[in-house]
Design brief:
Length: 374
């Protein structure tokens, strides 16, 4: 299981917030059971997460803020547990419904109008999965032992995987069929997921109309693709300098002439810590064959001791650096890191030759490159 920053930790957008680009969400729900609304921004394009909430009074609620770029958002109501997906755009956004939040209409700019076209397609798949999940949860409530039943869980996982594949295909088909729809940018981002295959995504993005690519959402995603291109396999690894555990400046160029695995991790990341024994084993096996590791921590200043203690506890003998800014780490941004663990293997000439090497994959790659070298 991966530590996914988009759903856990605040990752600030590359786009600055401007006071002149305010938005106001005005909600009106008739005949509602809702007494509280949660507001989430979990935008995979601008890489932004925010959370807010407000009470519902006589069916009325509101939120306001500032944004320079459109961002994907969710409203969630309790205790009736209804959800509405839409986009934040500068200006006034009206959310209205005769009953539940799920059935609400959004009146805003062109992006939300375009997104409504996409939602009609994806809602069918998501509603089916939601009903299936409710049925499975009801089955567990009636028979708690099912929670430990491997076949029961396998059936559930198969359904979730099938729905995920259906959604991906729906997003892909929508992109191909709607090059003039601004929501196609969001569809492409969902096709890409967290491990963006540029060979697939770049042609898709270029197939969109010029007006869509030059829209606010299009420009943000174009910037993201540009950053990812700069850290793709075969590209020169971007140079950086950060302080090590003793405060000494360490630069990537200091490792020129060696294979170096740039390893992004954090003391709080369970999967990172679980992978560390494999990294230590690989380091010990190949450290005398022109190979080393450079750790980059996404811990914060307040967690500096946790970072240092994790290094000691996990027995990590290689150089560790960090600016202790968490997900705001400058190297994290430079390399387009959206989740950890994440790594990049750089060759002696400073080029990226592989990435996301973990477990047996790391051992196979190092054996391939260094196995015969002494």
């Amino acid at each position: 299981m991966r530590c996914t920053c988009l759903l856990i930790i605040l990752l600030w957008s590359q786009v600055s917030i401007a006071q002149s680009d305010g938005y106001t969400i005005q909600g009106k729900l008739e005949n509602t059971k809702s007494n509280k609304i949660y507001f989430y921004i979990a935008d995979i394009i601008s890489e932004t997460v925010r959370i807010d909430s407000t009470a519902v009074k006589d069916g009325v609620f509101s939120f306001n803020g500032n944004t320079q770029t459109p961002m994907k958002a969710i409203l969630f109501s309790v205790p009736d547990n209804n959800r509405l997906d839409f986009f934040i755009e500068p200006g006034k956004i009206k959310v209205e419904s005769k009953d539940s939040l799920h059935n609400a209409t959004v009146s805003a700019g062109k992006l939300n109008a375009d997104f409504a076209v996409l939602k009609k397609i994806t809602d069918v798949i998501e509603t089916d999965l939601r009903k299936y999940n409710q049925a499975m949860q009801a089955a567990i409530a009636a028979s708690p032992e099912k929670k430990q039943d491997p076949e029961f869980q396998k059936t559930w996982d198969t359904k979730r995987q099938s729905s995920s594949e259906q959604l991906k295909k729906a997003y892909l088909d929508f992109t191909k069929d709607n090059p003039d729809n601004m929501a196609a940018v969001f569809a492409i981002a969902n096709v890409a997921g967290q491990n963006t295959d540029l060979a697939v995504v770049n042609p898709l993005f270029q197939s969109l109309s010029e007006s869509v690519r030059n829209s606010a959402l299009g420009r943000v995603y174009a910037d993201k693709l540009d950053r990812l291109t700069k850290v793709s396999i075969g590209a020169p690894a971007p140079e950086f300098t950060q302080a090590d555990t003793a405060g000494r400046a360490v630069s990537l160029k200091d490792f020129r002439g060696k294979y170096v695995l740039i390893d992004f991790w954090a003391s709080w990341c369970g999967p990172c810590r679980a992978e560390n024994p494999n990294l230590v084993k690989a380091y010990e096996q190949y450290k005398d064959q022109n190979f080393t590791v450079l750790g980059i921590s996404l811990d914060k200043l307040t967690a500096k001791n946790a970072w240092l203690n994790a290094i000691k506890k996990d027995g990590l003998p290689w150089t560790q650096v960090s600016d202790l800014k968490g997900w705001d780490n400058q190297v994290c941004k430079l390399y387009g890191v959206e989740s950890v663990p994440k790594n990049f293997l750089v060759d002696p000439d400073g080029k990226i030759v592989a990435k996301d090497l973990r477990g047996p994959e790391l051992n196979r790659k190092l054996s391939e490159i260094l196995g015969g070298k002494k």
